[in-house]
Specification:
Three copies of one chain form a homotrimer.
Chain A: H1 16-28, H2 30-33, E1 37-39, E2 46-51, H3 56-68, E3 72-77, H4 81-85, H5 90-97, E4 103-108, H6 113-120, E5 125-130, H7 136-151, E6 161-165, H8 172-181, E7 188-192, H9 201-209, E8 213-217, H10 220-223, E9 229-232, H11 243-249, H12 257-263, E10 269-271, H13 297-315, E11 326-328
Parallel strand pairs in A: 2-3, 2-4, 4-5, 6-7, 6-9, 7-8, 9-10
Antiparallel strand pairs in A: 1-11
Helix pairs in contact in A: 1-13, 3-13, 5-6, 7-8, 7-13
């Protein structure tokens, strides 16, 4: 892959060098995302934010990332029922909409739709999620977060020890993250799930073939011991035949502060793709973890802005111009933490 | 209250000095809102406009105010059903969304929700209305309008004589405005409503305890005599058990030009929080008042932009920099009136 | 008509000189729309994009056009049910919303609504479609496309030979385009439609009275022979009593590459207002035409941005300042074709 002008449709496009280049640029976005500096490098550019399926946080994360580079955002949310009902092909839709912007971020409920759209688009398209298929920027921000958290603890990605917890069968994020980990030196992966929600065998085998150590278990206490990262995920109710069936699994793998203290090494990082289920029956990550400095879930969502800024900068080939269009921020930027 | 970095959740936060500081800054926003000058003081800043309940005019008023200071707006309209359905807490939602902007304006259908959201937010939050609870910027723009209209007639706020007309029981705006008036020297308040829609006793008593003169009446003619301001409000159908019950009250307190001429002092100012009900059965403010120069209802909604610009400038601490990032407007700006 | 400050409600406002001025300015917008240059001439200006009826592509075309001139966009999509339900008049809505922007682009499902809105607006209003009544920017971009395509073939608009094909009875675009053609020297018009979907007699007569030659036919092969432009339109299902009735007409006037080769002169331009119906039963313009360089349908939608930029520039009186606020583009702008 080369970035300038590239579509970003799948994490399979990325080789290790691409990931490293992306993360290095993302690091350089911190002063802008943290409001110490502003840059106007993309002043005059337009992002087409085409969310044919709602996703407030992903949509706004993309939009803010583009604004932080100085660009404008034109947006659609929800299904454009009219043109579809009139029999327009995705190719035509893409052909038309790509005349209105410099780059497009798109989410769509159907698998493969973003790739089909990209074939009609005259400008680069970033996949913001196509059904249960791909959501590459989520996987990239997850790995970037693992890297950042480990770096701040004096470590690197190689030799990583990670526990993935929860619904590993239907969770798109853990699948994608696993595929990204294939690019790295042998890592230790604990897969913690009830038998019915185990990681698909093809992914487990791919990890093992790449030389990674994979341990599968149903026991949370055992799974989260001796790892650097606990990556918790939601039981996705919508995947089950009934609410009753989903309820069988909800709350089985709850992590709270006392479980953490009893089982985790000090400084074990806690991640979650969010939203976490905070209802009484679920509490995947109990709110009593909110004061634990190793709870990285909000740094993780913040990192989404850095990674998306970096992607835009690389696709539009301005990564090396960002700092030359910059100045200090002149407004109140203190944050509450 | 100090403004830089403050949440704006309730008018109870405001002392008289705060109101005066706000209005003084709002005055200085006129050349920008009136398109004689533009300022880029907030270029690079992002407003998160989170309207979980629709309100086109409030939403666009906030957004335009931010644009007029040079900033960008990222927006959500309607309920983010997905994350709520997935069991996310308002704290988490706030934590995540506050990573995408420098300040947030939020409306939500539930009382107290904006305060709860603010507790999770890392950036300042402005309440754009939370159910029937608070809508502080509306009360501030109302008082700002009263002050501006009186100033242009050579008067000040002290000694103000005001009639509030209509549904005083359920009308959020008259409640908030009354509470703001407590900050001022004794004023004369006429409360004009059917018995079933009278101002709540606690507000009437608070006004009296503060030394204000309060007169309650059902008769429009009597109520609007001898005042500086007539503040009319809508009968809120949605508050009644049935349309029939609401219809009992609709149209009872109609103001038109002949009623105005017969009862009001010359130059009595007419206000309304809008939308006014212009249907045949209602006509709270008859369209024959449109040519009356004392009809201030559109100056009132215009003032919302000034007050919101001033709030943004104070919260982000750029009030004193606005003019240094300014220049003349270069496009056609003549307005039809 | 003069442009600065004008509402754009109907193509009937345009005289030939206005159209020529508009097209000349649109030509000068190419370097900006094609991302060779950016201009900031409208930096600080705000477009109110009020789409009370959904239309993703028209809405985004207007918004991008305004962004390309350096301005900001505040937007509403879908019906503002609340204020309407509360009995607000379009006059009041316009009065209020026009306090938030410098110019308004508006679409509304009811005929005449945009004109009524404009009467209350204090800023210029552009009609983005009001029911089945008018959609002037579509007609203007159609004529601009005809002119551009002919110019690139060394021709002009006078003496034009055009075939309009499909549903000529209900198609708003062919009606408006016909009315624009009245401004030009005698042209040759082929009207190709089933008897039930013929062009309304008043339009046919207006064309003939203006000296134009009009030939009506049901036969596609005959109609598309000997013309410069084939303007195809969609059978609008929603106009018929039943799907069955609409299906009687769908697919009757299909154009594909072999029909084109057999009947059209070389370089005959193919246009369509889009969306084209690409479903199996319809195929108004077969996808095998996608490789035909004379298929101008995507250049046509791209031209919408140029024409809307030109309209904004003329209404806000900055047409002659566009180039003085310009600079080269610094990001990757290569397009896929």
């Amino acid at each position: 892959m080369k970035f300038p002008g590239s579509h970003i449709l799948s994490i399979d496009q990325f080789e290790r060098g691409d990931v490293e280049r992306l993360f290095e640029v993302a690091d350089r976005m911190r002063p802008y995302a943290h409001r110490q500096r502003i840059t106007r490098v993309l002043e005059g550019a337009i992002l087409g934010s085409m969310f044919f399926e709602p996703s407030t946080r992903t949509r706004i994360s993309f939009g803010s990332a583009f604004n932080l580079l100085g660009g404008e955002v034109r947006e659609t949310t929800g299904f454009e029922t009219t043109a579809i009902a009139k029999g327009e092909s995705l190719f035509d839709t893409a052909r038309v909409l790509s005349g209105y912007s410099d780059v497009i971020a798109m989410r769509h409920p159907e698998e493969g739709s973003v790739r089909e759209f990209a074939q009609g688009s005259r400008v680069p398209v970033i996949n913001g999620g196509d059904g249960s298929n791909e959501h590459p920027t989520q996987a990239l921000l997850d790995l970037y977060t693992i890297r950042s958290e480990l770096m701040s603890r004096g470590r690197g990605l190689d030799g990583l020890r990670i526990a993935m917890v929860g619904d590993l069968r239907y969770g798109r994020t853990v699948h994608s993250l696993s595929r990204l980990l294939l690019l790295y030196q042998p890592v230790h992966v604990h897969l913690v799930a009830p038998p019915e929600l185990r990681m698909p065998a093809e992914i487990t085998e791919a990890l093992r073939s790449a030389g990674h150590e994979v341990i599968e278990t149903e026991a949370l206490e055992q799974g989260i011991a001796g790892v650097d990262i606990v990556y918790s995920t939601r039981i996705q109710e919508e995947r089950f035949a009934s609410r009753e069936e989903a309820d069988l699994y909800r709350g089985r793998l709850r992590l709270n502060q006392s479980v953490y203290t009893a089982n985790c090494e000090p400084n074990t990082v806690i991640m979650h793709p969010l939203p976490r289920d905070s209802r009484a029956g679920a509490q995947e990550l109990d709110v009593d973890l909110n004061d634990n400095p190793n709870l990285a879930i909000f740094r993780q969502s913040d990192n989404g802005v850095l990674v998306r800024m970096a992607l835009f900068a690389l696709i539009l080939d301005v990564a090396d111009q960002v700092d030359t269009h910059a100045r200090d921020v002149n407004w109140f930027t203190e944050r509450r933490f």
